[in-house]
Amino acid sequence: MKPIVKRQVKDPMLALFDEFFRPMVPSLENQMGRLVVPAVNIIEDDKGVEIDVAAPGLEKNDFEIKVEDNVLTISAHREEQKLEEGANYIKKEFGYENFQRSFTLPDNMFDTDKIEAKYENGVLKIYIPKVEEQQKKVKKIEVK
User: Fold this and answer.
1) pLDDT tens digits for range 87-102
2) N or C: where does the chain have the smaller number of CB atoms within 10 Å of the terminal CB?
3) Class of domain 12-78+95-129
4) How far apart are CA 40 and CA 99, in angstroms?
5) 26, pLDDT greater than 60
6) 127, 50 Cβ separation under 8 angstroms
């Protein structure tokens, strides 16, 4: 496993897109030796960010989503379907690959305690609300 490397990015929104890939197990590479990672769409509005992960054919229980040290990690694991004894594939063109994908979240920009996720129609949707801006306090400084 490769260590997580934190990078400082001047624009906090750019940090969200500063994604990196961390292979955990050899099964993350397909038969051609390429890293298997799902495609994502990232959508931002005034209230938060939605990450849509293309992951058809999985079940909601196949996913694990966690946040640690401002790194959102999405992983999925699915056991290969076993054939009945004596049955063999004549042709097998698809299977389910395990994957892990991580995104660095900008410090203090998102409320990670209120992250929501749902899986429907082959897309995992993760909503990360932004922290409500605190009212700006004016502090008067006495001149001595």
Assistant:
1) 888 887 777 778 999 9
2) C
3) mainly beta
4) 13
5) no
6) yes
